[in-house]
Amino acid sequence: MASPQPASGTYIREARTADSPVLNRICLLTGDAGKSAEHLHKFGELIGLVYAEPYVHLPTTFGFVLVDPTKDDAVVGYALGTYDTRAFERAALDDWYPRVRAKYSYPPETNEGATDADKRYISILHNPPRAPQAAVDYSPAHMHIDILPAYQSQGWGRRLMSRVVAYLREERRLDKMWLGLDPRNDGAKKFYLALGFKELPGAPEGTMGLEFKDFRG
């Protein structure tokens, strides 16, 4: 069910498998510490193959998207995640990565024209990392959120985050979640801190956790 719509008509609904291509695109357009990463890639789909699309194709996942009906119901932002990180990682290893890595050879430098950023993500496709144990010990749930620049600073990030918290608390009976952010993205860090997130001790830089009792939605 969609959230109540403000005057602009923009609203939030559950993510669908059919949203996959636009989720990939939004991930690219926000992939350089919140700015477009298009200039960093020859193969622009790579970042979204890691951080966006799996969350509408694999089990134990959830997602909500921001939709602008004045632009033919275009998806303009998302909050995606999993309530069981380790199960998600296993499913990605078994099903997702074997499919999407097929067009990218390994080692990464064998892909003609691949940029340094491309090579990084090709390496991830062939050798997916595991989430930090300190983060998983904190909560089995993690998430990603990205919104196109034109829709930022309008309260939509807070609304999307509220939907995620409500889902995890009410549907999955969880009381915490975590996320990772690019340490260069000062704006994102300020946003998360304002919502009640805190840096996780023992986890890599940029890993932040939220106890739902502290959520300021």
Automatic annotation (TrEMBL):
<protein>
    <submittedName>
        <fullName>Acyl-CoA N-acyltransferase</fullName>
    </submittedName>
</protein>
<feature type="domain" description="N-acetyltransferase">
    <location>
        <begin position="83"/>
        <end position="213"/>
    </location>
</feature>
<keyword id="KW-0012">Acyltransferase</keyword>
<keyword id="KW-0808">Transferase</keyword>
<dbReference type="InterPro" id="IPR016181">
    <property type="entry name" value="Acyl_CoA_acyltransferase"/>
</dbReference>
<dbReference type="GO" id="GO:0016747">
    <property type="term" value="F:acyltransferase activity, transferring groups other than amino-acyl groups"/>
</dbReference>
<dbReference type="InterPro" id="IPR000182">
    <property type="entry name" value="GNAT_dom"/>
</dbReference>
<dbReference type="Pfam" id="PF00583">
    <property type="entry name" value="Acetyltransf_1"/>
</dbReference>
<dbReference type="InterPro" id="IPR051822">
    <property type="entry name" value="Glycosyl_Hydrolase_84"/>
</dbReference>
